[in-house]
Amino acid sequence: MKVLKVDHIGVAVKSLDETLKFYQDMLGLELHGTEVVDEQKVKVAFLPVGDTEVELLESTDPEGPIAKFIEKKGEGIQHIAFRVPNIEEAIAELMGKGVKMIDEKPRYGAGGAKIAFCHPKSTNGVLVELSERE
Ligand code: ZN
Questions:
Q1: CA distance 111 to 114
Q2: What residues have CB less than 8 Å from 58, skipping those under 6 apart?
Q3: 29 falls in which pLDDT band (50, 70, 90)?
Q4: Cβ–Cβ under 8 Å, residues 108 and 37
Q5: What pLDDT does residue 134 have?
Q6: Cα of 86 to ligand 1 centre, how many Å?
Q7: How confident is the model at residue 56 (pLDDT cuts 50, 70, 90)?
Q8: CA of 54 to the centre of ligand 1 (A)
Q9: Distance 97 CA to ligand 1 centre (A)
Q10: In CATH, what is the architecture of 5-132?
Q11: pTM above the 0.90 mark?
Q12: How is the chain split into domains, by residue range?
């Protein structure tokens, strides 16, 4: 198994506009755009930090996974994404080692990445995302 770096940290927020006041105005991070990912019912704001980034996630639907996360746990860190060189290989290797995957096949992620989530039951509670991108 090879992990290249922390690709991003996903933070669930109620309002991108409200939250950007802290990340942009207080921390001085730059907003490198936003994207709506319909499949996940989420609007994502990208804020690069060094060679990783913070992704703020605002739900576009009260039934979406981010809305449900906030309902249960409140705003906060929702997942950590690790960059892998080949996501199909990474999924196969983890499943071979008995890791439970939410996604057994990669799906589309924000920023044009191929992503797959590991089940928190297999990761001691953290929602871990694998991410492959150019
Ligand atoms: Zn992510």
A1: 9
A2: 13, 14, 15, 16, 19, 42, 43, 44, 45, 66
A3: very high
A4: yes
A5: 82
A6: 16
A7: very high
A8: 9
A9: 23
A10: Roll (3.10)
A11: yes
A12: 5-132
